[in-house]
Design a protein that fits this description.
seven-stranded mixed sheet, 118 residues, mainly beta, 11 strands
Length: 118
Amino acid sequence: QVQLVESGGGLVQAGGSLRLSCAASGIIFTITSMGWYRQAPGKQRELVATITSTGSTNYADSVKGRFTISRDNAKNTVYLQMNSLKPEDTAVYYCNADTFYSARKVYWGQGTQVTVSS
């Protein structure tokens, strides 16, 4: 089992910044990658960014150049630095951990609300 706890969401004006954190606990060594997804009202959950255990990153086109995903292995924490925020970034942001032990299993955090006002 892996537990994920997100923090750092809130209300910010357009052009502002926020940093999300996701602390992982449990069977950490099974994690192969972690990431952030978001879901806006009435829309499907979508990928924002991922980072593998070796540090390779992947971003949605809509956030490239504005968002940065990083990880602190000593703290078992993944961060999402969000700059130049736009109203269309408003969503619930979910942390995700992709794990493999005897089989693949995906874990999700509870979500944190990010609201960007115009």
